[in-house]
Amino acid sequence: MPPLVLVLSLVLLPAAQGTAVGVSALTCGPPVLVAEIDTSKLKGELRRLAWEPDGTTLYLQTADGKPPDEKFRHYAIEVVGGSLTGLDREPDWAAEYWTVKQDRAAPGMPGLVIDIQQQIETLKPGTGASGVLDRQSSPDAVAGGSPSAENLANGAHGNQSANVVRLRLVGQDIAVWINERPFPGMKFSWGPAGSGALVFTGEHGELVFLDGQRHRQTVPKVKDAFLPAWSTDGSRLAFIQKTGRKKVAISWIAVGK
Questions:
Q1: CA-CA distance, 4 to 29, in Å (whole number)?
Q2: Strand partners of residue 131
Q3: What is the model's pLDDT at position 257?
Q4: pLDDT (0 to 100) of residue 160
Q5: Distance between CA 132 and CA 126 in Å, rounded?
Q6: 69-91: buried (b, 16+ CB within 10 Å) or exposed (e) per residue?
Q7: Domain residue spans of the chain
C-alpha cells in the first residue's frame, strides 16, 4: 500500500504565563454525562470535539466520505442539558481550539514537541499488546491470504509487515496507527497553555495523562474513549465513549491539582 501521509500543524505560540503541571498530582472526578447520541442519526464518522472558551458548549464534527471529498457536518452541544443543535459551519472558536489541541508543539512551550515516526514494522498476530491481526485485520482480509490451518495454528501466517505511524512525546507513544489514515486529534489533546501536559487514549481507550517529565496517570474506570478534549482552563476533560454498536456517550470529568 502507498505510504500514509500525516499532516500535523506546527503553530509556535509565544510563551504563555502558566505553571508546568506534574500529572501524577492531578485529581480526577467521576464522569459527568453530557449526552447520549445514536450515531446512526448522524451522517459520517465523529471527527472533532472542542470546548468553547467559556465552557458552556461543546462542538462536534462529523465527516462523511473519503478525503479529499469529505462532507463535514457541525453541531453544538450544551454542556448542561445535552441539547444538540445543527450548525451551518464550524465556529471560529472551535477551529482555533482544534489547531492548538492537536498541534505538534505544546501550547505556550514551543520547545516541547511531538516526534513523528513513520516506518514499515513487522507485527505479531494474536491478542494483547503485541497482537495486531485481531485488531487491525478483518477475517476476510486474513482469509484472502489463503492461510493453511497449520500456518494459522503455529503462527507462520501471522508476522506481517505494516505501515506504522507513531506520535511520541518525551519517548512515549501517544498515538499509533497501523495501516490507517492518521487523525492526530482523535487520540490526544494538549492541556492548558504553559502546562506541558497532554492526555491521550491508550490501546483499550483508557485516558492517560502525560507531562514533559514523563509522569503518567491513568483516569480510573474509563475505557473505549476517543476524541479527548482538555478545556482551555484545564479544569475539565471531555471525551466520547463507545457504549454500543451505534451508541456513544459524551462526558466530562473535573481535573484538579
A1: 38
A2: 124
A3: 82
A4: 85
A5: 6
A6: eeeebbebbebeeeebeeeeebe
A7: 23-107+181-256
Q: Count other C-beta atoms under 10 Å from residue 108's C-beta.
A: 20
Q: What is the CA radius of gyration of the chain?
A: 19
The closest alpha carbon to 176, from 116, 226, 233, belongs to: 116
What pLDDT is recorded for position 43?
Answer: 87
Q: What is the pLDDT of residue 180?
A: 92
CB atoms under 10 Å from CB of 204, counted, come to: 10
| Residue type present at position 221 | K
Beta-strand ranges (E) seen in the chain are 27-28, 32-38, 45-51, 57-64, 71-78, 84-87, 105-106, 109-113, 115-123, 160-169, 172-178, 188-190, 197-201, 207-211, 216-218, 225-230, 236-244, 247-256
Say what the pTM is. 0.81
Query: First vs last Cα of the chain: how many Å apart?
Result: 46
> What cell numbers appear for 174 in the block?
501517544
Q: Which residues of the chain have pLDDT under 50?
A: 1-17, 127-156
pLDDT (0 to 100) of residue 125: 66
CA 91, 93, 94, 99 dihedral sign is: positive
Coarse DSSP helix, strand, coil percentages of the chain, rounded to the nearest 5 percent: 15, 45, 45
Angle value at C-alpha 172, between 168 and 174, nearest 5 degrees: 60
pLDDT of residue 10: 34
User: Burial level of 135, CB count in 10 A (0-12/13-18/19+)?
Assistant: exposed
Count of other CB atoms within 10 angstroms of residue 37: 21
